[in-house]
Amino acid sequence: MSDDFEMIATDEARALGESLLLAAGYSEDHARTITDCVVRAQMDECHSHGLYRLISCLDLIERGKVDPAATPVVEDRAPAIVRVDARRGVSLAAFEAGLPVLTEKARQSGIAALAINNCFHFSALWPEVERIADEGLVAIAVTVSHAWVAPAGGSRPVFGTNPFSFGWPRPGKHPFVFDFATSAIARGDIELHRRMKLPLPEGTAIDADGEPTTDPDKAVEGAMLTFGGHKGSALSAMIELLAGPLIGDFTSAESIAFDDGAKVVPFHGELIIALDPASFLGQAASDNLKRGEALFEAVEGQGARLPAARRYRARARSEKAGAMPVRRNVLDELRVRAATLEIKTR
Hints:
Blueprint: E1 5-9, H1 10-24, H2 28-43, H3 53-62, E2 73-78, E3 81-90, H4 91-109, E4 111-120, H5 126-133, E5 138-143, E6 149-150, E7 164-168, E8 176-180, H6 187-195, E9 205-206, H7 216-221, E10 223-225, H8 230-243, H9 252-259, E11 267-275, H10 277-281, H11 285-300, H12 309-321, E12 323-327, H13 328-340
Parallel strand pairs: 3-4, 6-10
Antiparallel strand pairs: 1-12, 2-3, 4-11, 5-7, 5-11, 7-8, 9-10
Helix pairs in contact: 1-2, 1-3
């Protein structure tokens, strides 16, 4: 392992996360759900969404934007629709509150949607669709962010990173899951490049004059780009509409206006759709899921990798070791904050 990383025990990582969040003022439910999410991502060696994200959650409360004790309100809107008002809390507690209703509605109607409104959202979407797929359901999730991304052919930010995630159940195996931003790079990766003083990949950002740049500081002053040119741009616009106007929540431009210079994680909504194979197929569900397995075998059989395979391998390593690698600079900052809050660490 590189000297840039340090191994931290899983129990220690959980204790550090919960202690920091509780000391900062988050309720027990928020501290638990946030810590569960970031530790899970760290175990999967998804560094941009792991323990590093605790920093942004601490910034969020320090700058007075979030309600750290908000209790989500679940509203049964229609036979196949549930809404959860996060009430200016972090999205994860709202997702946890809405998940049982979503899965029940999906099994009753064959398809159901969960709209989470008025939430601060910092996490990846794959933990959410993976949990739904573990229930035997197919899942799709979309959300916007801050307006950081220029449309294809443009030079000014309009879209967010606008991720799209999909989960497919695989009985006896980890679900097939993918989760990608419609921007050419994740915003968290730009911040990690900036902290480590590393150049960005080509084709991911432009500067304030609309010129291509690999300098993360200039990218922050300018705009990120969508992946795949006009195709990624169209997908990003679709997500703006689905997770914004359709559910009565902010677009990326409205989210960054609401931020008003605080520079915290986005405030907006999220749309999650669950589909029940058993409702579509009845007794034929099992046979058709096996047809999906034939597809995956055709991919892996020629040496190609399925999405999430790298994460699952990393998770297995972390579970076996009872520990996970974390960037030293991230741990150093978290330990400094712990000392400031008079929290004892190892």
